[in-house]
Amino acid sequence: MATSIEDVARRADVSISTVSRVLNRHNVVNAQTRKRVEEAIAELGYRPNVFARGLMLRKSNVLGLVLPDLHGEFYSEIIRGANLKARECGYHLLISSVTADDDGQDVLATIGAQGLVDGMIVMVTEMSSRIRTSLGDAPVPLVVLDGDIQGATHDTVAIDHRNGAESLVRHLLSLYPTSPIVFLGGHATNLDTIDRLNAYQKVLAEVGREPSQKDIVYLDYSYETAFRYASERVLEWSAARSVVFAANDEMAAAVVDAALAATLDVPADLPVAGFDDTRIAQLTRPRLTTVRTPMAQMGAKAIELLCERLESPDRPPNRVTLPTEVVVRESCGGPPAPGS
Amino acid sequence: MATSIEDVARRADVSISTVSRVLNRHNVVNAQTRKRVEEAIAELGYRPNVFARGLMLRKSNVLGLVLPDLHGEFYSEIIRGANLKARECGYHLLISSVTADDDGQDVLATIGAQGLVDGMIVMVTEMSSRIRTSLGDAPVPLVVLDGDIQGATHDTVAIDHRNGAESLVRHLLSLYPTSPIVFLGGHATNLDTIDRLNAYQKVLAEVGREPSQKDIVYLDYSYETAFRYASERVLEWSAARSVVFAANDEMAAAVVDAALAATLDVPADLPVAGFDDTRIAQLTRPRLTTVRTPMAQMGAKAIELLCERLESPDRPPNRVTLPTEVVVRESCGGPPAPGS
DNA sequence: CTGAAAGCGCTTACAG
DNA sequence: CTGAAAGCGCTTACAG
Question: ∠B148-B153-B157 over CA atoms, to 5°?
Answer without folding.
Answer: 40
